[in-house]
UniProtKB/TrEMBL annotation:
Highest taxon above the source species: Eukaryota
Annotated protein name in UniProt: Galactose mutarotase-like protein
Keyword Signal in record: yes
Keyword Signal in record: yes
Family indicated by similarity: Belongs to the aldose epimerase family.
A single BP term in Gene Ontology: glucose metabolic process
Lineage: Eukaryota, Fungi, Dikarya, Basidiomycota, Agaricomycotina
Signal peptide residue numbers: 1-23
Key words of the record: Carbohydrate metabolism, Isomerase, Signal
Organism, as annotated: Coprinellus micaceus (Glistening ink-cap mushroom)
Pfam families the UniProt entry points to: Aldose_epim (PF01263)
GO molecular function: aldose 1-epimerase activity; carbohydrate binding
Length: 387
């Protein structure tokens, strides 16, 4: 039986409560159907966003192009249940946690140390799910993107989801998180997250949004002609498992230099294995310079659609991933389902902390949170049209 069918049959029988992930994810809680769509609209009609409870996930984002036509500029599924049932889905536009990006060997210590030994005092191990068991990616086998969040507040322009992580995947303590999505006039989408822990634990969250500002119109299937600008003069150096070496790369005179707007594909021939995984393109983390005169931390725009997004965040870094491993059925709005999203079909722009800082004590970055120290994350996406 297909996994998605199995889930639907369980729900039809009355549902089961969520539990700790093991070989299979816990079924969603039937009383809060996790695939119902919540639609938010700005009063001026500039932006419409849709969300579902699985992962507090953004499923559609409609903004206006240079001709005033609305386009859905994020990837995803027409059937939101695939966010849960498809084991290969690429984390479409969800809130990712409890620890986003990568962790070496799924192992960390409190206080942090390099290469802690499993079984030693104050050393924790969570399931690995990437690079042949050498890496934990995005929180483990079933991280927050596959968990059912609960709506606790809603209005025509805002929705707040709650998730309680009671030691899922083996992390210490219980973390309670609230994610609020808000749309407002002028083409603005803002997401804010606050998470509190019952005991010391690592927390690093992100919103894993895949953008294609052309929405697969105008005969385009990739984002290689999109322009990208990043207010960052250094990139985290990676090893062959895409884990940080603890060193940084100066972006000057390299394919990483997006301090001035450049097309993503402009130096494509020079991007082979930049991310330490044998792929072509980008899957790297830039460290923001955070200059006072900046207007945004990251900007993305397309001359074809005329759509531009300026992104501002309170996070110190941004992961940019040009969807090398993408191979999912497209939405109808993007020409599907007979077509598929392929390589370079979108760019994921993920605001976050430093990659695997809990395994890199040399940096002196504290990603351990506690009852006296809540985690906070906020990002604003401002969309505009270029005429």
């Amino acid at each position: 039986m297909a996994f998605g069918t199995w889930v639907v049959k369980l729900l039809a029988l009355g549902g089961l409560a969520a539990g700790v992930a093991s070989a299979a994810p816990p079924p969603p809680v039937a009383k809060d159907w996790p695939f119902d769509v919540t639609e938010l609209k700005a009063p001026d009609g500039s932006i419409t966003a849709k969300f579902v409870s699985i992962g507090a996930t953004l499923t559609e984002l409609w903004v206006k192009d240079k001709d005033g036509k609305a386009r859905d500029v994020v990837l995803g599924y027409d059937d939101p249940s695939k966010l849960y049932s498809d084991p290969d889905h690429p984390v479409f536009n969800a809130i990712v946690g409890r620890y986003a990006n990568r962790m070496k060997n799924g192992t960390f210590s409190i206080p942090i140390s390099r290469d802690p030994k499993p079984g030693a005092p104050n050393v924790f191990h969570v399931p690995t799910n990437d690079h042949d068991g050498q890496v934990t990616l995005h929180g483990g086998i079933y991280g927050w993107d596959r968990r059912n969040w609960t709506i606790v507040a809603k209005s025509p322009t805002s929705v707040t989801y709650k998730h309680v992580d009671a030691g899922d995947e083996g992390f210490p303590g219980t973390v309670t998180a609230y994610a609020t999505h808000t749309v407002s006039n002028g083409g603005i989408l803002k997401t804010s997250i606050r998470a509190t822990a019952t005991e010391q634990t690592p927390i690093m969250l992100t919103q894993h949004t895949y953008f294609n500002l052309d929405a697969f119109e105008d005969g385009t299937d990739t984002i290689l002609d999109h322009y990208l600008q990043i207010d960052g003069s250094k990139v985290i150096e990676l090893d062959s498992n895409a884990l940080p070496t603890s060193k940084f790369i100066d972006v000057g005179e390299t394919p990483f230099d997006f301090r001035k707007g450049q097309t993503i594909g402009g130096r494509w021939d020079n991007t082979v294995d930049l991310c330490g995984q044998g792929c072509q393109g980008y899957d790297n983390a830039w460290v923001y310079d955070k200059t006072k005169s900046k207007k945004s931390d990251t900007s993305l725009w397309s001359d074809k659609s005329g759509i531009r997004v300026d992104i501002s965040t309170d996070q110190p870094s941004v992961q940019v991933y040009t969807s090398f491993w993408m191979n999912s059925i497209r939405k109808k709005a993007h020409g599907g389902p007979e077509k598929r999203y392929g390589r370079c079909s979108a760019v994921a722009i993920e605001q976050q902390g430093y990659v695997a800082a809990i395994n890199t004590p040399e940096w002196g970055i504290d990603q351990i949170y506690s009852p006296k120290r809540p985690f906070e994350w906020s990002t604003t996406y401002k969309f505009s049209s270029m005429h």
